Structures are given as structure tokens and as C-alpha cells.
Design the sequence.
């Protein structure tokens, strides 16, 4: 069990650029979540996949954000035309497909938009 | 909009004392409740979960649930400096997606 892997761990970009984050969940986990966390706040839900299907998206999620999970394995989160307000830690988590349960988090990808 | 409320703290307790962390939630239909610990610069990790009214104990940790009052708490007995972290309350809603509170920062001083 290698845990949830995210990369890159850190990304510094200029406003207006596009960035992409990758998440590799625990292999037997069907559920995958993306959260965003800023300093002093709890994780804020962005989107959720069950296998390859994106089943939930936060209403707060801008059209600049898009996520995919091809073949139900790894997932990518892309942010287009980044803004300074996008600066945050982007957390990926996965869980088993058996009701409410423990989320296993990756180490996160920290985005800084200059 | 489902809400999970926590006092941001910091809560400061001396080593060996009991730390009490509280969480309220808005969705009366919530059935399960999770406590995560997050060290500075690290990701959240699960420490306790509770489904039924009453108390659930695991080592130095006790989770308490009162569904009528929509209130869940976490007690840490014999607090240690290594317990210093942010404690996040999480309540799953639709599709079992957890909503997290903002977290309570706990400082255990020697």
C-alpha cells in the first residue's frame, strides 16, 4: 500500500497560466475526492469521482477548474487562467466504495499564483 | 448548505490535562461523524469516527455524540505536546462526501 500520491508537491505560476495536478489514489479505492485548503480553514470540497464518473462538483467550482479520472485510476485537476485567489493547497483523497468511511489523503499540491 | 462549525481556537492546555474539542452540524439527517488530525504542513489523518449516540473510546481519545443537540465532541485525555495539531470535524452528506469544519488548533504546552 503506497498511499495516495500527488504531484507536483509545489507549483509556483504566474497569473493567467494554466496548471495541472495529478493524483494517484490507493489502488483498490473506487472513490476519489479533490479538496482545496487555505490557511486557517478546513478542506473545502471541489469534486468527487466514483471510478471514472465525476458524480459531484461544488457549486463554488469555477468553470476554470476541470477534473478527469480516465479509466478510473489516476485523476488530474486543471486550473485554467489562474488567479491569485487560486493559491491554496489542493488535496486529493480516496476511499473504499462501502458507505461513509475514512478518507485517505495525499500530501497535497501547494499552488502559489504570483 | 450543510454546515459544520468548530471554534478555531487556539485551545491551549497543559501537558497531562484533558482537551475538549467541539463541533456542531446543521444536517439533522447526518449519521456518521469523523475526527481528523492535521499537523502543521501535513495532510489530515483519521483518528476517530462515531455513528451512535453516546461515547466511543479509543485509547486516550473519546468521541461523544448527541444527535438531538447536533453536537459531537472529541476528548483527549493526558494530553501530550505531540497532540498539538489542528483537529477537523467531518460530516458525510450526500454520496458520503464529507463536509469539514474549519478545525480547532490545539496547543499542549509542557
Sequence:
Amino acid at each position: 500500500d503506497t498511499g495516495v500520491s500527488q504531484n507536483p508537491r509545489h507549483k509556483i505560476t504566474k497569473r493567467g497560466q494554466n496548471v495541472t495536478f495529478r493524483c494517484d489514489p490507493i489502488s483498490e479505492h473506487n472513490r476519489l475526492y479533490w479538496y482545496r485548503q487555505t490557511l486557517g480553514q478546513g478542506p473545502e470540497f471541489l469534486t468527487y469521482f466514483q471510478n471514472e464518473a465525476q458524480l459531484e462538483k461544488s457549486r463554488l467550482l469555477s468553470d476554470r477548474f476541470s477534473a478527469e479520472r480516465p479509466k478510473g485510476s489516476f485523476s488530474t485537476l486543471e486550473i485554467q487562467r489562474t488567479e491569485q485567489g487560486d493559491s491554496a493547497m489542493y488535496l486529493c483523497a480516496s476511499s473504499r466504495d462501502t458507505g461513509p468511511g475514512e478518507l485517505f489523503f495525499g500530501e497535497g499540491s501547494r499552488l502559489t499564483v504570483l | 448548505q450543510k454546515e459544520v462549525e468548530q471554534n478555531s481556537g487556539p485551545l491551549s492546555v497543559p501537558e497531562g490535562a484533558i482537551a475538549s474539542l467541539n463541533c456542531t452540524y446543521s444536517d439533522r439527517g447526518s449519521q456518521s461523524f469523523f475526527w481528523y488530525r492535521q499537523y502543521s504542513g501535513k495532510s489530515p489523518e483519521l483518528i476517530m469516527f462515531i455513528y451512535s449516540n453516546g461515547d466511543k473510546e479509543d485509547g486516550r481519545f473519546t468521541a461523544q455524540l448527541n444527535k438531538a443537540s447536533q453536537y459531537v465532541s472529541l476528548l483527549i485525555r493526558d494530553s501530550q505536546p505531540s497532540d498539538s495539531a489542528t483537529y477537523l470535524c467531518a460530516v458525510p452528506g450526500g454520496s458520503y462526501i464529507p463536509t469539514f469544519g474549519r478545525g480547532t488548533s490545539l496547543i499542549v504546552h509542557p
Q: What stands out?
A: The mean pLDDT of chain A is 94. The longest strand of chain A covers residues 88-95.
